[in-house]
Design brief:
This protein is of the alpha+beta class and 372 residues long. The chain is 65% helix and 12% strand. The chain has helices at residues 2-32, 40-67, 76-103, 115-190, 192-211, 220-238, 263-274, 317-330, 360-371, and strands spanning 217-219, 242-248, 256-258, 281-290, 293-300, 335-340, 346-353. The longest helix is centred in the middle third of the chain and has 76 residues, at 115-190. The two termini are 55 Å apart.
């Protein structure tokens, strides 16, 4: 109903403007030609009477044009409806003008011309008006269709991005779960107490994962809590062979990061860097704000990357999955570097736009209470 009233109001407003513009142009023409111009009353009577006739017609023509709109492949059926409608409305406009002349005979624009010729002239003048209304209606309809397609396209792209993110996340979660279960199985025969403790830690880790189901981004604070819980499991396995150092900028704690962005990197460092070593290994986790970007680093002093790492696709799930998820979330507005460190070890650096998670503080309090 609101849309229908808008069409009626716009129709009368636009045709009133057209009548005023036409009357002003006629008066200026009379003055420029040196003649005695008709009065404003007469000029407005001529133009407003005709304009308001078409102001009444316009909403109906607009509705008809929306229902039978022209397309590149579908134009015959609309033409079969629009052609008779153009003749009908043009005749109706001319007849209403004749009725208007009958009521106000002094308002005739050509008082000495035969009325029959004047009606024919008005009929032929009404046809372009009908075509103009149809053209404007078609333009509005195409614009609305274009906006609807853009909206649907953006919604489909968003749904696709979420589906791809969910698929990537579903890959990473079973991946680390599988590795932890293997570690528990390896400890069962050698150290039953440690295996039991690791099982309880895994239950805590899974409970924390349930808190972020359906969320692709979490505050860095929560990601670090999850990582610490995972590292407790690994330290149960490696004991004194694994040392972890955190260097976290407090400003970065509420920054938005992909859920499970650090855990695969740390797992990769433990599995490929620390695991093969007989001596103790060290992992460092850094997080700092640099200008308007968040820098995340995971460093280890392990064996480093194999020769030719950059020339061949990375077969592991952790690095490939993390980079794919970052690309889904940030497009090309991120950096992901993996390289050997001077001396020994490997380093992974991530740079993403710095953005704080809305309501991160309240989420953190609820998450902390749940952990307790």
């Amino acid at each position: 109903m609101r849309g229908a009233w808008t069409i009626w109001v716009l129709s009368f407003a636009l045709w009133t403007f057209v009548a005023a513009f036409t009357a002003t142009g006629s008066r200026l023409y009379w003055i420029a030609s040196g003649g005695n111009p008709p009065s404003w009353k007469l000029l407005l009577t001529w133009d407003l009477g005709d304009a308001y006739t078409w102001a009444l017609f316009t909403p109906f023509i607009y509705s008809l044009s929306k229902r039978y709109h022209f397309g590149l492949r579908n134009w015959r059926t609309p033409f079969l409806f629009q052609a008779p409608a153009a003749i009908l409305f043009s005749c109706a406009g001319a007849l209403l003008a004749a009725f208007w002349i009958f009521l106000l005979p002094w308002s005739r624009s050509h008082p000495f011309a035969p009325l029959r010729l004047e009606l024919i002239s008005m009929f032929w003048g009404n046809l372009p008006r009908y075509c103009l209304i149809v053209a404007v209606s078609q333009a509005i309809a195409y614009r609305n269709q274009y906006r609807e397609r853009e909206l649907k396209s953006s919604q489909l792209e968003m749904q696709l991005a979420h589906a791809q993110l969910n698929a990537l996340k579903m890959q990473i979660e079973p991946h680390f779960l599988f590795n932890v279960l293997n570690s528990i199985a390896a400890l069962t025969r050698k150290d039953a107490a440690s295996a039991e403790r690791m099982t309880l830690q895994l239950a805590e880790l899974l409970r924390m994962s349930l808190h972020n189901i359906g969320r692709h981004e979490v505050p860095l604070r929560q990601e670090l809590e999850f990582l610490e819980c995972y590292l407790r499991i690994q330290q149960t396995r490696f004991q004194d062979r694994l040392t972890v150092h955190f260097d976290i900028d407090p400003v970065a704690l509420n920054a938005a990061v992909p859920h499970l962005v650090l855990q695969p990197l740390v797992e990769n460092a433990i599995r490929h860097g620390i695991g093969p070593r007989l001596s103790a290994g060290r992992i460092e986790v850094h997080a700092h704000k640099q200008d308007q970007r968040l820098m995340l680093e995971v460093l280890d002093n392990g064996a480093g990357l194999p020769v030719g790492f950059r020339e061949k696709p990375e077969p592991g799930v952790g690095l490939r999955n993390t980079e794919a998820r970052l690309r889904q979330l940030h497009g090309d507005n991120f950096e992901f570097h993996c390289e050997n460190l001077l001396g020994a070890g490997c380093g992974v650096r991530i740079l993403v736009p710095f953005r704080e998670v809305e309501g991160a503080a309240s989420d953190d309090r609820a998450h902390t209470n749940a952990n307790r």
